[in-house]
## 1
Amino acid sequence: MLMTLPLSADDFTVPSINSAKSAAAAPAASAAARVTAPAVKEWTIMAFMNGKNSLSEAVADDMNEMETVGSTAKINVVAEAGTVSGEEGQNQTFSVSRYLVQKDNDIKTVGSKPLITLGKTDMGSWKHLAEFIAWAKTNYPAKHYMLVLWNHGSGWKSPGKPITGDSERGISFDDETGNHITAIELARALTKTGRNDIIASDACLMQDIAANYEIRKYTDIMAGSEESEPNEGQDYSAFLPKLAARPGASAEEVAVMYVSAYHSFYKTKNTNTTISAVRASSLDGVAVRMSSLADALLAGDIQFARDSRRKTLKFADSDARDLGYFAKVTADGTKDPKVRAAAENLYNYIQSSVVISSEYTKEINSASGTEQNRTPGQNGEPASAGDFSNATGLAAYIPVVYQADFEYDKLSFAKACPSWTALVKKMTSPNDAPDYWDDYAHGE
């Protein structure tokens, strides 16, 4: 097995091994070189599994799921897995290893052997993520790459890290170092390592326009959830068999497989979930249409905009609401033809050009066996708060109260769409407004 030495996290370049053509074009210096050169497969799945936190036990569960298929003649499944043992706040032991995941029929024990066991490793560092991607692409080249970011997620927000311009948003929280990767830092990692066909966030709250906009230039498709994910995350024992059966599938087809596997797993789990896949190339068009809608709403009755927000499906982060549903509610309720035209344009574009696949599950009433919505909250919470049938596949920042210390305006999307930032600021509700208590100041 060909392996490279770990690259410097501070400064490195990534070999241009992105296709069968480039691999075939490389000169054959010797017979030994030809023998040891890694084969270019159809897909390499790169799973960055940061379990150096409360998700540590789930690492083995998901790796066992991956081992139901493992790596094949057509696909590579590689993983960096971080875990922790010991009681929180006491002497904990952290471990990070890299694997070429192999097929194993034992669903309780990880059979794949570590290729590399690293020393102290900061999986909350974008530089380390970049080094992992470079290592995976160098050693396991493929025609197509899928990066799976496996961990806790918080959309473009990331509580717990000091606010320093670009740090109040992210993924991959490392309890050993106290670090995590912000949305802007994720873009830096991808700048170093080249494009991926799919970036899947097996983490909470990541299917958000502002978070995705940061990385739109470095992938074709983003897959993830608008809502919080259950601890089980993706069902790799359902996803990977689909890919192994059709290794020549396109990126959009694989993204649909990913969405379908997640949805099928949770249909019987009595929980509310969302999952979707969106086209990165469409996000600039989203920004244009959101600007037009924001401009139209700013020119009209701002209370109507607040009322539309209150009717819109929200998620576990109550500042995040479904963008397509907001557009639909706005179009259906307005008497202003300019607002209606802008809202319909945004909604139709999301449906036709942005979302490849979007699914949801609901809680099941154990007595009747039927799906049920959550009931409205005591302070007027909208019934739609638990009805994920309204989810269209992409969330946006639509808060009751705009909080400047989140530094939303530092994001690339906010800079590209200043009208939207102006709208959410103007939509801030006073603390005596009926909707103020819908989802703000509950002990926050």
Note: The chain is about 35% helix and 20% strand.
## 2
Amino acid sequence: MIDLGDRRENDAFTFGFTTYGQTGSPADATGLTVCCYKGTSETETTTGLTLTRHDDDDGSGGAQRLGLYRLRVSLSDPFYAINSDYYIVATAGTVDNVNLDGVCIATFSIANRLMLPFPGIEGAVKTDSTPSTTVVTCTGVSGGKTADFYENQALLWTSGVLKGLTFFITGSGTQATDSLSLNLQTMTAVPEDDSGSEDTFIILGTKGT
């Protein structure tokens, strides 16, 4: 089984795997199909999966390799969500008279393997503060500092749509303690500020606890 690591939301990637005969040598499969499962759910999907026999299909003169396949995985469908783990499984096929149904080929996750703690300052988006892709008002980070105290620090998102992504702080305000405005390098999405689901982050490093 192959571990494909922690992927980003809406990622697309291709990986290869090999099927083997009973002697242990690579051998082509007959009728091979695959699906993907999410977490502990028994619901399967084939959406976003494109299985191809590795062959000289582009006319470049490359050698055909017995048992070698490539699988294209596109995570754009809503089935593929952040904070989730996935595994790709054979649903049919045989190799050298051995049934492949149920064989787990690979696993991966989507923004779900962030390990804590990190050295730094933990904070969260302030409830109903209307953040943007460049300005976030937060709680949990000490205010009362001089202007731009946190400038050039790196901010790592630990939950929400931006989980696992890091952006540089380009400036910070001087608001009262526990309510601070941060200017950020333009982010790829707007963080969440709804009550009970505010996105969280860590300012990496140890500056200004």
Note: The chain has two domains: 2-110, 120-204.
## 3
Amino acid sequence: MRKKKVRTNYEKLKFDELHTLAGKVAACMRESTVFIDLPVDLEEIENLAEDYQIKWEVAKDGGSKLEKTLRDEAKAELLEAFSRLATYVNHTARGKMSVLVSSGFELDSDHKPLLPTDAPVLVKLTDGPQKNQLLLRFQGVKKRSFYEYQYADSLDNDGEPIWGEMLQTRNSSANIIAPTRPGVIYYARVRTRNGAGASDWSDVASLMAR
């Protein structure tokens, strides 16, 4: 089982959330009998949060380039102090939940393994923008790296499409199949792929080219 920890990176927190966190951590640490050899002084945490607040207020309504730079530097210093202190908390707590929670920091979420995404749905073949073209479109799927699709213009003895080469796309609405031959029925299928592998194939769409 993965050892529980507190977060050490708070870069995505908003200004007010960072300021609130600083106050919460400082208050919890002052009452702690476990965290007694801190790598960052609690007053320093509070001063960094106050400095960030002042510079954020100055730069929030169209501040100058210098004012925004000073704001970003103040935030970076606060985040670095958070990271040092949170790392110390994890080392001291050694996975003990009660100790982690008592620090005031946020618990790190459990790692979730990457899974293949679902197969695309609403797969359709329509007339293309130009003669001798078909357009393949389908509903987009989140958390995919790209799509793979195949099309066919003939069936085998069992009535199954004889699929052509594997094609890749990142677009779910503008995939051209060409050149097509009038009167021939075309078939298409699509799937997603990400770091965990490929999804199942979609339902097969078909259309007679005109």
Note: The chain has two domains: 15-102, 124-208.
## 4
Amino acid sequence: MIVYEEGPPVVRVGECDVGGRRAAARLLPYGGDTEGTGCRFDPIERVFQLPQADAIVAAGPHRRETWRGAIARVPAGPLVVGPCLAAEEIRGAYRAAAEAAGESGRGVYLLDPEPAFLPANRGAAMTVLFAWGGDSEALRERVAAASDRGLSSGVLLPAVPGWTAEPGFLRGLLPPLADAGCRWVAAVPPRHDGEARRRLVAVREDAPGFFERVHHLDWEAALPEALRVVRRAVADAGLGAFPPRPSGAAEPPGNSQAASRLEERAASAPDDHRVALLHAAARWIDESGWDLRAVLAEGNFRKVFPFATEIAAEAEKALSRGNA
């Protein structure tokens, strides 16, 4: 039996990566042990969650003002809200968190909303993220529901060698998603530690030979190729490779576009040090408090931007062009 216990807002403060985009914090309307709610892929933890017969799930408040108070203490930058659970019909925690995030003036990523409880469309301020969890038809229906509401939506796909990163699988998945209004599919590298591999096998326990492949695979060599296969297939399907970075009403549009460009450069950076620098530069832009397009027009951008010349040049391109 799944037991929901009402509690305070659960907000995980600290940078997290969502499909190649940087977020400042994650709001969990249903926190605690969510594994009892069915099989789903968590694209931030990068691991599959498994169903349990019994679990206790913390349900957040259903009042927007309570979430607003928690959000006010989070550093500047986009927010991730989710996932949503079936209990939303009774609890209302997801919609309250999502609407409070939207009212904060920040960009908002909505992770796995239930179609019936999608919040009001806030245009470029919200991007809908659906994590692929095994049921491609249900995923297509969710994407279509968000598209019908005018919300920009796409899919976070775990790039699993020998499964979701196979060309045949992708040929069956991507065209129906595109037809449903999907605009992008971001490849997410799954975790491959012992527990993550155990969960992968549990998700596909009936697949012949999958146990041996998962546990004996050279993941360090296979994962980069799996990501390349998915990204090629996504491009061939005419889909984007990144979620659009949402821009809240309180954010200068140029700032969001410059941060977006740096995040995308980080995805193809040659080493972890370069990735960290690009993400740090995006964080600086989010937290600067300046309209950087105006700063650039005044000729002062390089004077205030504390990063290397090549990173500054990338940010300037986005600021001067008006889009990333």
Note: The mean pLDDT is 92.
